[in-house]
Structure prediction request, 679 residues.
Amino acid sequence: MAKTTRREALGILGGAAAVGLARPAIAQQPQTVKFVNVVELSGAGVTSGTNWRDGIELAVRELNAAGGILGRRIEVQHLDTASNPGQARALVTRAIDQDPYILFGPVFSGSVMVSMAVAQEARMPQFTGGEATAITAQGNPYIFRTSFSQVQAMPKVAAYLKDQVRAQSVSIIWVNNDFGKGGRDAIMAELQRRGVRVAIDVSTEQNQVDFSSAVLRAKNANADALFVYLNEDESARILREIRRQGYDKPIIGETVLPSQQVIELAGDAANGIRGHVGLTVNAPIPAIQDFSRRFQAAFNRISDHNGIKGFFAVHVVNAVTKRLGRFDRQAFAEAMKNIRITTADAPGVLMDVSYDDKGNLDRDSFLVEVRNGRQEVVAVLPPIGRS
Amino acid sequence: MFADLAQLTISGLATGAIYALAAMGFTLLWQTSSTINFAQGEFVMVPAFIMLGFLGIGMPLIFAFALTLAASALIFGVGFKRAVVDPMIRHGVLPLAIAAMALSLALQQGVKLVFGAEARSVPDILPDGVTRIVGVAVSYRDVGVLVISFVLILGLQLFLARTLTGRAMQASAQNPDGARVLGINVDRMILYTFLANAALASIAALLVTPIYLAKFDLGGPLGLKAFCAAIIGGFNQMHGALAGGLLIGVIENLTGAYFAPQYKDAAALVLFVIVILFKPEGLFGRREERRV
Prediction:
């Protein structure tokens, strides 16, 4: 048997003492809960992704200042997909390796579609900003929306075009990605169901900068109205092109076109556009207006709908986790089925909201018009479940 | 039908005129210093952000633009020549072209780091609105872009052809050794072309970003179109670059309207390939022989 020297014995004793001293320090560290946000922080989706990230950041800061969730401080990590679906999938895999409680993002539907199966396999609840109908149509029990799907929103837009705008024919310009294709299919089906003719259907590319020929084609179709369904930067560019070509028919959009970010980028060219939005900081709801003020104070700009979506998602997690009384991903996903969360119970959700068993949500929405560079709410539409 | 075609052509000419401004920079630098500036698109993108910086501190647009022009001349005229071209050119055209590509990436990422990846709105100096001429809707903006571009290009051509400095610049480009014998300060003449290129790029930024928005990755597609325009027109002819730019602008618009908008960006590349195959010196270029 080997004999322990005095030096080795002192070393062992010293090490033991060090571990003993360190233990209370470890015990005193506050417990944390980890969120990972995989989102578009560069590339074509940067505007959406940045707002989404900042909405999450604001919610996390405020919740941490109030003691976190169930006494645990929230740690959030943001990972940039560069608006690339392949990268989004790789980052979701990386995020899962870090074992977060909840996964947030992406916002671009194409990135959600290719990455959500990875989260599903890991039984990881995921809150997405994507609006494509297919996201919640695949039976994934771990995916949850933060906004309306296109099949929920487009009936409202089509009804508005037919009943309020009184359009008998409509030109459609859309972006050729998952988001755009889903929206185009949904609006065409709804317009046809109501007997409104689609005069022309023009597809454009993500990141396109020149819209002169697309606008001219729509203009020459001579429809009663133009429906535009593009991402943020492209929406602003097309609005400037529309004004440049002197197009004078009603221009209608859904969510992105009349968003604050597009209005700021398009300037005067945004005046007069109308549309349906699921969320807006201009909603006549004090909690949303208060959120908007706090967001602007924190980030020195006005939030768009994606900022509200990010903020809302964190508060849904907070509300549901508090109801559960524990951090349990499987129980969380089950608790989200057919849940109703009211602002009386959870003020951070900003509006009463209910989820179905597929991860779709339902709540009030708004018809807006842009006047003098500001989005103004012209009507509040009730949840689909009540309309 | 005629009205559509006319409107598409006018709008295409306006877009093409902006390509031409950037394309002329390619030809200027090539003629005087054998520089293929693959960062030309970024030379248009960066001034837009410099101008936004000046506007951000409350400066009126016209002063912001004047200062941008000066800053651009300093950075992309003097700075580019002294820091990139002069040390690299002695190693040949290819290393310099690669250095320009590296500069292009550095500028993109630098702007992204400082200003973020989001698009920015840029105020327009040109008026909004549309007028009808013989049934054709013509926007004041398109007219403004065309007038400004043509005045600039014509002014530059006149300067090069009719002034002593302009002729000295041409002499330096055509035969540097001969120019030196005649007492021309060739290095200074080359510097003037870099300054002219920086100025053209800044003006292109002023004209294009109100519609395309200022974004860190704007330079890539713009630089590619300008490069194609310069090749199509003739890399060694200024009026070739002008023609190439206008041609691409119009063909893109016609492709987008009568074929499919998705293919409009490919139009410039298809034209580029056709010209390279059948008239490699460009539509208006002249054949050059170089000893290697």
